[in-house]
Amino acid sequence: MRIAFLGHSYHRLTGSSRFMQAILLARLGAVEVFEDESWQGGAAVDVAAVLAGGFDAIHVWQMEQPLEALVAARPGVPIYWYPMQDSARHLGPAFWSRTAPGARIIAFCRAVHEDAVRRGLDSAWFQYFPDPSGVAPVGAADGVFCWPRREAFGWPLLKRLLPLGFSGRLHLHDHPDPGSAPPALPDAVDIAAHGITQSRWFEDRGALDRLLGEFLIYVAPRLHEGIGMAFLEALARGQCVVAADRATMNEYITDGVNGLLFDPDRPRPLDFARAVAMGARARELVALGHVRWQRDAAGRLLDALTAPPGTRLRALAEPFPA
């Protein structure tokens, strides 16, 4: 089987789609990746080349515009769409009624899956968990790490979440998401008052991982996530993750058990007193989740990806009623 995989080239840097490409390659056939480079002034995905490529299946990772063009062209092969909550929540009714029914939906966010089901669409939902054995645990780390990536979650909001009288280490990684308005960063007064250290983009991913491993608390930098690979890796690392009480973070984190959730509309100082215990529990739960994910990848997911035309994915791949 020859498979076309369409995705955003920025995800190659973040690694968010790498696990899915590996599954397709290992279990279904040869994978050719088409990447959108328009976010950095390059070319968009060449949909015509995809359609002319003679592929047996087309997989679209987020990428709503190429999906719309593919569905309209009716290529005669199955199209799989992996919607992400951070962008899918902005799609209007016309997209869901005109485009989404032309693709098989594989959702890694339960909120997106439930929305699709409410609209009468066929969707299969899965939870991805990384392998914690491949992630070095934080050990005796302390302090707070935050990577502000979008305007909605910058220093003013983070400052309101810090415990009263917080005097621990605080590090900000300054590298906003491409195409997004940059978040507000602390001024010189706040940098001095809180002893804030800062970093920018690392060409070496290992250098960033080593820096992350120095901190006990990881602040998830977005108010909405598609999968949220960065905060999942933080959970696997055994860090106490602070995140907005929104999808997909609240589908993995139980407040006060394996992390801390906050209401972005009513931010309040958080309590870090049990951060070590919550981080340890996070790593344990990721290990359990990874076992389930491996079982799903070889079972329910494979069934969904090889189902004959007309088969309802929910009948094959729904773990419990939506």
Tag the structure with descriptive keywords.
six-stranded parallel beta sheet; 322 residues; alpha/beta; Rossmann fold; 12 strands; globular
What can you see in these coordinates?
Helix 11 (229-237) crosses helix 12 (275-298). The two termini are 32 Å apart. The chain folds into two domains: 2-130 and 292-317, 3-Layer(aba) Sandwich (Rossmann fold); 132-287, 3-Layer(aba) Sandwich (Rossmann fold), CATH 3.40.50. It has helices at 10-14, 18-27, 47-51, 64-73, 85-88, 93-98, 110-118, 155-161, 188-194, 205-212, 229-237, 275-298, 300-305, 313-317; strands at 2-8, 30-36, 57-61, 79-82, 104-107, 123-125, 144-146, 170-173, 196-199, 217-219, 240-244, 260-262. The strands form two sheets. It has a six-stranded parallel sheet with strand order 2-1-3-4-5-6, with helices on both faces. Strands 9-8-7-10-11-12 form a six-stranded parallel sheet. The chain contains 14 helices and twelve strands. The mean pLDDT is 91. The longest helix is centred in the last third of the chain and has 24 residues, at 275-298. The chain is an alpha/beta fold and 322 residues long. Helix 4 (64-73) links the parallel strand 3 and strand 4. InterPro entries: Glyco_trans_1. One of its GO terms (molecular function) is glycosyltransferase activity. It comes from Plastoroseomonas arctica. It holds the Pfam family Glycos_transf_1.
